[in-house]
Specification:
- By secondary structure, this protein is α/β, with parallel strands linked by helices.
- The protein has 11 helices and 17 strands.
- The two termini are about 15 Å apart.
């Protein structure tokens, strides 16, 4: 089969490799489409994967080609694939917190992923894709579940004013979910005007260019009584946006830290004082809920997409064949053109 194989940092090659064989309780999936996550770029070009050679890619959807074991699923069925493979034995797994598993595997970073024509995954990691959801859109099930999980971590409530710092695909999915959960107002801030214009075209909320306007003042102006946001999601991973998130949160508000930091983040005395005096709740978020309890976030994503309560298609700016993967990833790494979500396809 064809696959993009990472041999070393920056050494990604399109190759013919042996077809993977599903282990017991696994399925072989023909990959229809694989999204390129922002985390794939540093994994390929900066710090590498856990071993070499390895096939990257963890935002996947396809059809079942073969099943090795007993399952209600069947060959030919369309599925999205949860990338985290939990051990099922540790205390976190036993309590249902699979995302905190201490001995997990992961498609695309610890074992071969989906930048290929086929991939193997455990049967428990497969989520049926409803009719009406194109497989290319189902690749966004993973980031959409990640966005939903962040809002669950922030305990979003109907009527909340939600501020989102970072307006990439995750930020725009956060906005859609915020409206879905009953937000009264959504404010999106970024320094990239093209991203903000896309968010405006999708009517996702009030947009603020942080290069030319004060996002803290904008959030306060849009909030009830100019108190600030009930919930702030920091999805940019920059020191300045962490500081802005703390400042724009209302007293007794919540700040969810979501963006992977691009460097060290230090809080000034004044910011710590604000956290104390406003009695803010700061929470981290990571991945999504990979189990069924307390809520199956992946199933909720696909159900909402099937009912068009969230729109995944507009998040995709590029759909290119797998064979064009190396040059496409290089384009993204060099930022040679504007993109949101880029998807590799297997026609």
């Amino acid at each position: 089969m064809k696959a993009l194989m990472l041999h070393a940092i920056g050494d990604l090659r399109l190759e013919q490799v042996p077809m993977p064989q599903p282990r017991e309780s696994e399925a072989l999936i023909r990959v229809a489409a694989a999204g390129i996550c922002g985390s794939d770029l540093p994994r390929i070009y900066e710090h590498g994967t856990y071993r070499f050679p390895l096939i990257p890619g963890h935002e996947l959807a396809g059809t079942i080609a073969e099943i090795n074991g007993s399952s209600d699923l069947h060959p030919g069925q369309a599925v999205a694939i949860k990338p985290l493979i939990a051990c099922g034995e540790c205390a976190y797994c036993r309590s249902g917190n699979l995302g905190q598993c201490v001995d997990y595997d992961y498609l695309g970073s610890r074992r071969d992923g989906g930048f290929a024509e086929y991939v193997c995954a455990p049967l428990d990691n497969l989520v049926p894709v409803p009719e009406g959801v194109p497989l290319i859109e189902a690749t966004l099930c993973e980031p959409a579940a990640v966005a939903l999980h962040a809002l669950h971590q922030g305990d979003i409530r109907p009527g909340d004013v939600v501020a989102i710092l970072g307006t990439g695909p995750i930020g725009m999915l956060l906005a859609q979910w915020s409206w879905y959960c009953g937000a009264s107002q959504v404010i999106l801030a970024d320094i990239d005007q093209a991203k903000l214009e896309l968010a405006e075209s999708l009517t996702l909320g009030i947009t603020v260019n942080s290069r030319t306007s004060d996002p803290i003042a904008a959030v306060r102006a849009a909030s009830h009584g100019q108190r600030g946001a009930d919930l702030v999601i920091e999805a940019a991973g920059a020191a300045i946006t962490v500081a802005q998130a703390i400042e724009m949160a209302r007293p007794l508000g919540t700040v969810v830290l979501m963006g992977n930091p691009s460097g060290d983040v230090a809080l000034s005395q004044a910011l710590v004082s604000q956290i104390l005096r406003k009695q803010l709740t700061l929470r981290g978020t990571w991945n999504s809920n990979f189990g069924a309890l307390p809520v199956d976030e992946w199933q909720l994503v696909l159900d909402a997409a099937a009912r068009r309560r969230i729109c995944l298609g507009p998040m995709i700016s590029h759909a290119v064949p797998l064979e064009q993967g190396p040059e496409t990833l290089e384009m993204m790494h060099q930022r040679r053109e504007f993109y949101t979500r880029v998807v590799l396809t297997n026609p």
